[in-house]
Amino acid sequence: MSEKGPAQNRMTIGNNPVFRDYYETHYRRIRGHIAYLTGSREAAEDLVQEAFIRLFHSPPDHDRVLPWLLRVATNLSLNHLREERTRRGRDRVMMEDESDNVITVEESVIRNQEIRQTRKALNRLSERDRVCLLLKFSGYKYGEIAEMTGVEKTSMGTTLARAQAKFRKTYNREVRE
Amino acid sequence: MMKCPSIGMLQSLLDGELDIGLKKQMEQHLLQCAVCKNTFDNLKENDDLVYSRVHAYRQHMASENGDPSARRNCGKAGSIGSFPQNGKIVHPGNRNIRKGWSVMLNWMKKNHKGVTAACLTLVLLLCVTVQPIRAAISNALTIFRVEKIKGIALSMDDIQQIQDQINQKNPNINIDQLGSMKMTGGESTQNSLAEAAAPIDFKLMIPKSLLGTEPTVSQVAPSRVEFTLKVDAVNELMKSYGATKLLPVSIDGKTVAVDMARQVNMVWQTDKGTVYLTETAKPSLEVPADVDVNQIHDALLELPILPENLKNQLKGITDWKNTLYIPVVGEISEEVMINGQTAWIYSNRTADGKDPDSSLQSSLVMIMDNTICALGGNMDKAELIAMAKSLVPVQ
Question: Are residue A121 and residue A171 in the same domain, yes or no?
Fold first, then answer.
């Protein structure tokens, strides 16, 4: 029961204690990561399951499970974004957020506005640029982003500079509208 | 002098990705080359903007709050085997009070629709959120400071009602006609906990159980917003909403300023989920001594476009000058006592386990000594109250 790594276990998913432990430890983090990258909590609910199913079926041969999961989650997110673009073929209609919380007045009127504009600006970026930008702002270094997205490390600076300039431009345009 | 670096190189410099030798060379180059310096400054501006927007966005997306799709979907693809779906991240968005102000100001300037709703809200907030700490700091100014908080029940319908009325009666109102606003400060930075705890404007407090752990910390610098109202224009507007009581003409051209203190945002990722804590010193309002705030308060509360229930709640508060209003949207929040202080707490899960599908999250706002705290997390009401009671100064 205490083996390191989930590989050795041949039990079913539901009652494998090692896997269960990983699941319980990392579930929220991975789902949050996917929601952040894809901009969709709904997608995150599905993809987080997919990430763990991959962990169960083809686990890494090392114990650094969290980085492994984050990389898989990033991949799934990128694919999801690409499929989404193909499927819709046009700008998405952003879902209006509803808040039923203790909120300050400016949050009730404004905050969601800001989030919506941020989403819109992100949606105007290519999937690759978007994911590079978001990974950078969640603390990853160029080398790690390159590894996860397939963008050359040497062109990361250019990619990010372009993505950020475009974000700013479209964000400001959204705000003015 | 080195050859001008590419934009990608400049971005790498900005992102701290260059090795030390190259970094020094580039910094030297920027001192000498105005073209590159200009490009670099522009990249930096982009970076700052994207950072501030993405930061708020990230907190929003990583939380479970406020997205109906997440709830709708819970349990659909939600279970593998018998695994509990307890993986709900909490927090409620950023209680970024100060950022809220600056965003609000930008939005008011740029978004004509609903601008009056925001304006009205803002003026109401200004008028009702503060209290004289001393009669005056000088003869010229009266300083008001928040001392208490009070929840005001407000539904989305109420907000909608105000907006609808405003849109019907005067859809094209422009904030520039009503007066001028100036905002300074408010820059945000990322820091360590020790850095955030160093200044003495207020004592940074964290939950006892999290002492010795390092949260993600960001700070917003103090900011100041100055309003100079054109009373005639504001009164015209108020008349168009059916107001009979108007603002005193004496405040025309007078400048009212809101000083927002430094704000510290902290986020911990714990085994049980996210814990989120925002602290700021109390904001204060400066009003020229000859301005009668009572008169403004009364005039605003008489506005016919305010929903009756809201009006009554506001009127019921006699000590409005020292109260920070916290609009409580929805019905599941309540007043509790934390170490002798009033706090407003929201929890999406009640003790009888209603609504098991939604994520477990609670948050509260309270005033402690000189500090306004907003604490939230992946826990139930009792746990959050216990955590709020356990706040201790960071050493």
Answer: yes
